[in-house]
Each structure stands twice: as structure tokens, then as C-alpha cells.
Amino acid sequence: MKDAVLDISGLTTTFTIGGRAIPAVQDLDLAIAAGETVALVGESGSGKSVTSLSIMGLLPRRVGQVAAGSIRLRCKSGQTTSLTGLDPESLRRLRGNDVAMVFQEPMTSLNPVFTVGEQIAEPIRIHLGKSHRSAAADAVRLLGEVGIPDPERRAKQYPHELSGGMRQRVTIAMALACDPQLLIADEPTTALDVTIQAQILTLMAKLQAERSMAVLFITHNLGVVAEIADRVAVMYAGRIVETGPVQDVFDHPRHPYTKGLLRSVPKLGEAAQLKAQGRDLPTIAGNVPSLRHLPPGCAFANRCELATESCRAAVPVLEEVSSGRHARCIRWREV
Amino acid sequence: MLTYMFRRLAVGLAMLLALSVLVFILLRLAPGDPVAAYINPSAPLSPQALAELRARLGLDQPLPVQYLAWLRAALSGNFGYSIQRGGVPVLPLVLGRVGPTALLMGTGLVIATVAGIATGIVSAVRRNSSLDVALSAVASLGISSPAFLTALLGLYLFAVKFHVAPAGGMLTPGVPFSLTDLLAHLILPACLLSLGYAAMIMRYMRSSLLEVLNQDYVRTARAKGVREVWVILKHATRNALLPVITLIGSTIGVAVGGAIFLESVFNWPGMGLLLVDAVSSRDYPVIMCATLITGAGVILVNLLTDLLYAVIDPRIQVSK
Ligand SMILES: Nc1ncnc2c1ncn2[C@@H]1O[C@H](COP(=O)(O)OP(=O)(O)O)[C@@H](O)[C@H]1O
Ligand SMILES: [Mg+2]
């Protein structure tokens, strides 16, 4: 993709466990343009968080490492930098500045012994070199921007004095403090009540439009994807199995896994109807294979109705199925 | 906040009262007779004179009566007179020992806290390195070696063998007071006192910090681009300190035991030395008073660490 803020190609991230390198992410390609939101979806354990930590350079030291591929980021300066080749100190200067992250657990992601104002002001002082006073003023302004009433007073409070939704707004303010080019949100609404979820999604969409950031939005909730993303990448057992514009993918999935995922999302009223008929919600039979014992072919084959001998022989390539759409399935035409 | 303090103080007073009952009973249960101190072995007293002496000291009354008499006097500030030291009032005698003991314990505690926390941080950050293994081994040694061994060994090595420290006392007799003289006498017993304590704090700090380093907010700090040294010293250490402070506060009583022992090894003119003397001669009033003053000190330090905890951890609301 031209003009991409984030351009990942061929990313493979491994964890060394008991002397063996176990791939958590394999051969991942992903690009996000300015102002675009790409959703990364998949069941838990499919490698979504590992992908985001690979970008941030925050993989657990000595255990996790980027084994292959490149991650390129267009920085605020306009220059494109390869994150995989960067020394730790230069990478630290980009973190929180050019690329920032919002985490899943608002209850535990904030430091309990510092005021929220201080926690938002910190990256402003570190990266923009502002004084304590001016960074603190920025923090109050940011709290207002993420929709926290009475920001002046809230800035002086500690995380435990705020509700979960408020705290997630604080972590968003913290991530946006230095106007990053790329925002990674790793399941930012998963831990929240449904009504709060909707508010946070609306807020994120608004803030993104104002700043024309690139956003990588990680979730396992397809409803959220439909609401917030332009494009979607579906992950399964460490690999992307399908990508494309959200509407296209939802209307015409080209991978049996995507299709199964979509089918297992209950539509409004459907669950009650099925229950009345005495039928279960449709689910995908079987389990995700362990990353330690991935089959030689398609990792989804053992759960797939369409699987054939050739599916089990070799990992299918991510094939272009139409303009801007890819699927990792040799029988995509029949899905 | 204020009500909390008052409640804590009230609880403290109740504990002191209970302590006084306990010590009183234990003293009377222990073998030995305070009157023995009055007896000149070469001129034994007649049974009649002995009984008279007991009556004068109030020892012939039933225990509850004795206790209440003691309590009534104590509440009015009269802790009685030393049996052994020929009728010296007990309270000034005991209070005079508070300073030296507080100096020794305070210095030992500061050394232990600083050394324990610093080595704990280093050990946690470099976990499983050879440095960590070495520090942990030293800590195990420090915790498991009995106080009398470290005290006597330290005394032997530094005072007797290498002559780098005086062998005992607080000040050189017959020389005008000087701070350097005091420090020279202080440093060896204070370091020996801090040894086991530092080892305990180090271990606790290490495991506490290791746990904190796995917390989400530490990852958040890294994601913000905070320098690694500040991630550890600012974001992680402040949180890791919380349980360590509780530990320091709640084990201060143990340190008192160590101090009593060290004082008698180093002839340090503090509460410990006084107590050891008093116990060996069954000087009941001195034992009672010294125990209570020491107990009050421990309770006060506990209260202070609780307050410190509330200052560091904003989640604690002491008013509730
Ligand atoms: N710290 C770790 N040590 C070892 N393996 C890990 C670690 N973190 C993640 N993994 C592996 O990577 C896989 C993907 O994890 P993750 O990216 O967190 O999944 P999710 O898609 O739910 O975010 C996990 O199933 C696990 O096998
Ligand atoms: Mg995850």
C-alpha cells in the first residue's frame, strides 16, 4: 500500500519455550493508511496481541522475538522507519510518541499510585519536552477531549476513584497525548459494559476522524468490527486467513472460518427464536490447534466442512480473490 | 484521619494494659525471688526479717492486689523503685535508656531498609543472573544465621582481630563527647543489627518487585516510552514498596529482640542492657517499666508505618 502509516510484511513472531521456537504469528502482512481503521479479529490465542506487541517492541524479553519480516512505520517527521531493525533506545522514543497503545484492562492498566493527570502528562514531558506545568495543562485539555466532565478536578484524582469507562477514557487520552501517527487498541472495550462500549467506540471514531490517525483495532467481537472498522483482517492460529473491506467480508466471506465466525454471532432475537425451536446457536465444531502442534497444511482443516486432502498437504497462500480482498483458502470459490 | 489516629491510640493503650498484665503474671510464675538481691550471703536473714522485707515490698499480698497497686501507682506516673539499685526511681532510669536504644535501633533500621531495598531492586531486575544468585545466597545466610553468632563473629572480626571498631560501649570513657566517637561506637553494632533485617527486606522487596513488574501498568509505562530505569524506579518500585513497609512496621518487635541481645554483647547502655540486668536480678519494677516503654515504642512505630503507608498508597483512606 502506498502512503501506509504502518506497513507490516512477512512478520513472524516466535516464543522460545523449552528451547523450541513456537510461532505465535506467521507470515503476517498488514498495512494501514492514515485515517484508516483496520480491525484484527480472531479467537483468543490467535496471535492478535502478539502482533501488537511486536509492533510496539514490547514482546517479553528473552522469550518472544520477531523472527522474520519487517514492520515499517511512517513517523511524525514524515520519514519511514523500520521498527524491526531499531535499537531499543530509538524504539523507546517512538513509543507513546509516533505509535501509542490502549490496552484491554482499564482497571489494571493505570498505575494506582499516581494521579491520572500525572500519568497523561508523563509522555508529553518525555517526548515533547514540555515543562511539568504545561504538560499538566495539556493533560487537563486531553481529559476534556475524551469526554470526561470536570477535567480539572478529575486530573487530580487517582485511578481507583474513576469508573471502568472513565479509566478507559483516561488511557485513550494518555495514548493520544503526543498525537501519534498510529494508535493500537487491543480489545479496548472487551472489559466494559455494553453501553459504555458503545460510548468508547463513538469516542474513538470521533478522535480518529479529528486526527486522521491510522488505527489498528483488535477485537474478537464482530459487532464492534462492523461499527468501527474500514477493513478487517481475520486471524486464525497465528495467520491471517482473510482480509478485505468490512462490508464485503461480512456479506461474502471467502474463508470457511470467517463464515463460521459470522454465523455464530447471534442476531437480535435469533437466540430466543432458536431456543424456542430447541436448537443450539451455531458454533464452529472442534478446537483451535495448539501452536506447538500445528498441522502441516491449513490450520483450520480439522474443523472445516470443505477440507480435502490437498488442504492438509500444504498451508494455502493468501490469495487475492477480488480487488483488495484476500483469502487463505484453496476452495474460496465454494465458500 | 484524626478519629482513626485516636482509635489506633486507644487500641495501643489497651494493648499496653494487656502487656502489663501478661508480664506481671509471667514474672511471678518465673522461678527466682527478688528478695534474694537484698540478702547478703555471708549474713543470712532470719525468716522473720525476710517476711518483714516481703511485706515492705508488697510481695506478701495476693497477685491481683499487687497488680492493682502497681497499676494505680503507674497511672499516676510512679513506676516504683528499683529493688536492685537501692531504691532509685524506675521511670527516670528507664527513660534515660530510651535515647541510646532508639539511636542504635534507628540506625540499624535505616541501614537495613536502604540496603535491603536497594539490593532487592537489583536482584529483581537482574533476576537469575549470577549477581541475583549471590545476593540471594547472602540473604539466606543473613536470615538463617542466629543473631548471637553474627554479633559475636562481628565483634571478634572487626573489634578484636582488625581493630577497626571499638569493642563496646557508646562513648569512650573519660573523653569529652564527640560525634565521631559516638559514630565509631555505633557503626558496628548497628550494622550487625541490620544484617538479618536487611536480608529479610531484600527478599521481600525482590519478590514484591517481580510481581509488580508483571502488572499491566508497568507495560503501560513502557508503552508510553518511559525510560526503563524510570519504569523500575518510579512506576514499579513505588508499588512494590507497599508490602515492604508493612513488613518493616509489623516486624519491628522482632528487631527489638535483636537489639536487646546486641546491647548486652556490645555493652551498649540502652534498654536491652538494663532489661538483661533487671531480669537476672528479678528487679520486677524495672522489668515492668522497661517492657511497657519498649512496647509503647513498638506500637508507636507501627502507627507511624501505617500512616506512611497511607501517604504512599492513595487507595488507603485512613479516615474510614
Ligand atoms: N508470554 C508468552 N509466552 C509464551 N507464549 C505466549 C506468550 N504470549 C503469547 N504467547 C503465545 O501466543 C499465542 C497468541 O497469544 P495472543 O496474541 O495473546 O492471543 P490473542 O489473539 O488472544 O491476543 C498464545 O496462544 C500463546 O501460545
Ligand atoms: Mg489478546
Fold blueprint:
The complex is a heterodimer of chains A (335) and B (320).
Chain A: E1 4-17, E2 20-33, E3 37-41, H1 48-56, E4 64-74, E5 80-82, H2 88-94, E6 99-102, H3 116-128, H4 132-145, H5 151-154, H6 164-176, E7 182-186, H7 194-211, E8 214-219, H8 222-228, E9 231-236, E10 239-245, H9 246-251, H10 256-263, H11 270-276, H12 309-313, E11 319-322, E12 325-327
Parallel strand pairs in A: 3-8, 3-9, 6-7, 7-8
Antiparallel strand pairs in A: 1-2, 1-4, 4-5, 9-10, 10-12, 11-12
Helix pairs in contact in A: 3-4, 3-6, 4-6, 6-7
Chain B: H1 2-29, H2 47-57, H3 63-75, H4 90-125, H5 130-144, H6 147-161, H7 179-213, H8 216-223, H9 228-250, H10 252-266, H11 271-280, H12 284-312
Bound molecules: adenosine-5'-diphosphate and magnesium ion (MG).
Magnesium ion is lined by residues 48-49, 186-187 of chain A.
**Which homologous superfamily in CATH is the superfamily of the largest domain in chain B?**
MetI-like
Shape of chain B: globular
Q: What's the total count of β strands of chain A?
A: 12
Q: Proportion of β residues of chain B?
A: under 5%
CATH superfamily of the largest domain in chain A: P-loop containing nucleotide triphosphate hydrolases
Q: Could you say what the CATH architecture of the largest domain in chain A is? A: 3-Layer(aba) Sandwich
- Output the structural class of chain B: mainly alpha
CATH architecture descriptor text of the largest domain in chain B: Orthogonal Bundle
Strand content of chain A: 15-25%
- Can you tell me the CATH class of the largest domain in chain B? Mainly Alpha
Tally of domains of chain A: 2
End-to-end C-alpha gap of chain B: 8 Å
* Uncertain residue segments of chain B: none
Instruction: Assign a percent range to the helix content of chain A.
Output: 25-40%
